Give the backbone structure.
Amino acid sequence: MATFALSATASPIESINPGGSVQPCTTTLFKEPSFAATCTAHAGTVTSTASVDCGGCVLETRYLGLGLQCRHTVTFADIWTATATSCALSTVTPV
């Protein structure tokens, strides 16, 4: 099973590009690759969603490398849950 670590950074500051339009800030989510030599395969996958407080920023995911190539594969007849990350609804009240 692949493991990963999450780290999020955000800046609530908006920037203006040379064209004059306002660019939203970015929350960056870093994911570590798997370093397991044995990979697992499952009969099916279900996706769940994990919410991250982006503070009104855009969410960006960066993968920190590819990890190791699988040397062995183990197959299970169960369903595996993959987790997708998205921004939570903002709790900030506009002024």
